[in-house]
Amino acid sequence: MNALIVGADRLGNIPSALAALGIRVVEHVSGRQAAHQRRVAALSREVDLLILFTDFLSHNVMRGFRESARAQGIPVLACRRSVACLVKALAGLGLSPQDPCSSCPANAKRGGGADGPFPA
């Protein structure tokens, strides 16, 4: 899945957190330019998800990108610029990180999984 992120000057560790969920950041727009205040052109065809960081955007910028995404049938996710908030919002869309222990063959043999490698 490819995402367009709108808001925030720097993303920090957000791209790596999204990569763990199988989401690649194809473009990042800060939203501070005057051109972003006006009507937004159609989003790129490779964008599958629009992420809006609400604590860094004006209402006009959010409305423009949201309308453009909805016209193209692209899901919109709005949250604060925080990995915890982003993961929680993505879980609301049905996207959540997998437990790495549940797929480990060693844990499957011992009856482990999400609860750990040792039986209770």
TrEMBL record:
Residues 110-120 have a biased composition (Gly residues). Pfam families: DUF2325. InterPro entries: UCP020408. Residues 95-120 are annotated as: Disordered. It comes from the Bacteria. Belongs to the UPF0751 family. This is DUF2325 domain-containing protein.
